[in-house]
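Quick one, tokens below. Sequence please?
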């Protein structure tokens, strides 16, 4: 028997006026609610940058109530008979420029939020609008692996979220997008192949292989989009396509994690066959 432990809480009432002073739920390291504090949107935005345990409450509420990705927009699309493809993930998905324009034949709602860990989603299972989705794309992992923080729990949190949403929306179809090995996670000593592939093996063993196993038990309702294979060069070892990533300096360190237009072009090609109309 499957038992879902929901580590978080559902908001007692939705935020209807985004300019109003919100109540932020503050979480401890286990993501159980320990207190509630009232802050202004500016204060909360500042704290989000300093303390990820606030779980991006303001950003999620803004997406929920405003703009082309809002619940109201999804209700309108459903009333018009459209199927909704929803994306939830970290900054790679959140930063996708013109994601709707890249899938002009489909209706795409992007409810990803930058900096997200998979466990942040557990605190907001009822705030991401999945009840309106027909087809859900999920992508997480970079933040956990880059910070070496709870990376062994990414797949578990993704699977728990899927099981919860499918209980409430049994017809929901899910696409697990396998985490890609960006250049910053490619461990290369320069002289031994087994060490050069260390980053890739860890991601495959801790995350991607477990998602494959989960999808295999759910037939056509849970599918796998192999982004890790698509974003690597042919040959051996299959190194990351560095030309698809931008070089950034973050906290004094050079990183190649986020993608450029070439990277998103590959993502579009990989994900299009999984879209529904």
């Amino acid at each position: 028997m499957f038992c879902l432990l929901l580590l978080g809480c559902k908001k007692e009432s939705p935020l209807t006026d985004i300019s109003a002073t919100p109540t932020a739920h503050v979480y401890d390291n286990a993501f159980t609610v320990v207190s509630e504090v009232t802050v202004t949107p500016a204060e909360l935005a500042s704290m989000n940058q300093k303390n990820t345990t606030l779980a991006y409450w303001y950003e999620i509420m803004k997406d929920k109530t405003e703009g082309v990705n809002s619940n109201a927009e999804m209700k309108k699309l459903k009333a018009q008979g459209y199927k909704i493809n929803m994306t939830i993930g970290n900054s790679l998905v959140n930063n996708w420029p013109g994601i709707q324009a890249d899938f002009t034949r489909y209706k795409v709602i992007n409810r990803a939020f930058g900096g997200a860990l998979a466990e942040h989603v557990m605190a907001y299972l009822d705030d991401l609008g999945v009840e309106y989705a027909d087809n859900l794309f999920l992508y997480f992992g970079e933040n956990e692996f880059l910070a070496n923080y709870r990376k062994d729990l990414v797949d578990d949190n993704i699977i728990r979220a899927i099981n919860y949403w499918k209980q409430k929306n049994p017809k929901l179809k899910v696409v697990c997008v396998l985490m890609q090995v960006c250049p910053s996670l490619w461990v290369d000593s320069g002289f031994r192949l087994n060490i050069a592939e260390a980053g890739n093996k860890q991601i495959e063993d801790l995350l991607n292989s477990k998602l494959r196993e989960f999808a295999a038990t759910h037939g056509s309702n849970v599918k796998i989009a192999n982004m890790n294979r698509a974003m690597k060069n042919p040959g051996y070892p299959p190194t990351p396509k560095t030309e698809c990533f931008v070089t950034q300096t973050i906290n004094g360190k050079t990183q190649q994690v986020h993608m450029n237009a070439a990277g998103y072009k590959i993502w579009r090609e990989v994900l299009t066959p999984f879209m529904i109309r």
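Residues 198-216 form the longest helix (19 residues). Residues 70-274 form a domain with the Rossmann fold fold (CATH 3.40.50.1110).
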